[in-house]
Amino acid sequence: MRILTASILLLSVSFVISCGGEPEEGEIVIRAEDIVPDDSLLTADTLLLEDTVVSSCLDTLSKPDSVATLIPDVPASDSILAIEPDPAECPWERIALQINGSIYASLVDRVPEPDVLGAHIVRCMWWDSDPWNGMNAGDSLYVLLGETGRENQVIALRYVPSEGTSNSSFSVYSFRMTGDNYPSHYYSDGTEVMKMLNYMPITIFEEMTGPYGEPRDNHYHSGVDYKAPEGTPVRTCRGGSVTRLNWNLDYNGNCIEIGIGGGYSEIFLHLQGVAEGIREGSILEKGDIIGYVGSTGVTSTAPHIHYQINDENGNPIDPYLFYSSHRRHLAPEDMVEFSAFRDRCDLWLKMIPE
After folding, report:
1. Which of 179, 143, 197 lies closest to 71 in space, CA to CA?
2. Are 268 and 234 in contact (CB under 8 A)?
């Protein structure tokens, strides 16, 4: 969800406290004053109503954490750029898709695993559009698929709305910024598609695989999920007092809740384990390690961290509303290679047969 003004926000949807838990009845009303209840939370890293574009991530650490997991390299694009844009020579799988119902339904009978590819496509689109409810019959998607060095196999994607609708066309491209462990997706001008929290709970991650409010069967996702190598350190974004440890283990796996002031708390689920020495009542500083990425709990299917903010009544709040966020932009040195790669992708996207 995006805030356009400081007016009252109404969410008439039920949310749950853990990934995969059953939703509760009732209506949640979130107002700007609920998110920033007093001066104790009115700091530079709290709520901003507009995103900013910056060249680097304002993280809790000056340098990323390191993990033992070897992250696969992605072949340099020089060999790709050397190929003439002959449709027969395209090194990637090409798909042209006209939306009929949902993206997932439109992929049925087109690919072996429509749910997986549908999820990958949606992750490229959810930041500035509504891929669940905002698509129109007749909208088109053109996709290049191949090895990217991460689970998401989308090399490039072009969305073209049908005529007469209010949606706008856009393209995204997989590219790894210098210094990053994984590629990310970028718009044509080199702006990263994903938004970063100004204070991230994790510094090494492959992708956000679940946004707040994502429809999931009979409920909506109550936090944000970051897919990361198992054992990656996880850190508190604000610090505070530990209020709970390892409750509802079947669903949540190893988990921790930290009171961060003003009645608000941050929650971490599916941890490999809680950091040594942490117990109920422990006082933590912003940036302290609270545990490590795992895949515990019956609802977790791969190593990731579920990060959630709750208000004083236990209602979840989108972390991207509670904290300020920003988008990175590729540096001039990266833009040289990215621009050439983007232009080549555009040629192949145009050549995808209907």
Report:
1. 179
2. yes
DSSP state of 91: S
* CB proximity list for 201: less than 8 A, separation 6 or greater: 226, 234, 235, 236, 237, 266, 268, 305, 307
pLDDT number for residue 230: 96
The pTM for the full model equals 0.77
Nearest to 146 by CA among 155, 159, 137: 155
Please write the tens of the pLDDT for every residue from 253-274: 999 999 999 999 999 999 999 9
Q: Tell me, yes or no, whether 96 and 211 share the same domain.
A: no
What average pLDDT is seen over the chain?
80
Q: How many domains does the chain have?
A: 2
Q: Which two three-digit tokens encode residue 179?
A: 């210094």
Q: In which domain, by residue range, is 241 found?
A: 9-51+196-323
CA distance 23 to 17: 8
Closest CA to 220 of 17, 8, 4, 9: 17
Q: Looking at residue 102, what DSSP letter applies?
A: B
Domain membership of residue 125 (yes or no) is: yes
What is the identity of the amino acid at 54? V
Residues 45 and 151 in one domain: no
Residue 337 lies in a domain: yes
In a shared domain, residues 311 and 225: yes
Three-class secondary structure of residue 121 per DSSP: helix
Residue 239: φ, ψ to 5°:
80, 165
pLDDT of amino acid 270: 97
Q: Which two tokens stand for residue 252?
A: 């949540």
Q: Where are the alpha helices (H) located in the chain, listed in sequence order?
A: 32-35, 78-81, 103-107, 114-125, 249-252, 319-322, 332-350
pLDDT digits (tens, 9 = 90+) for 300-319: 989 999 999 999 999 999 99
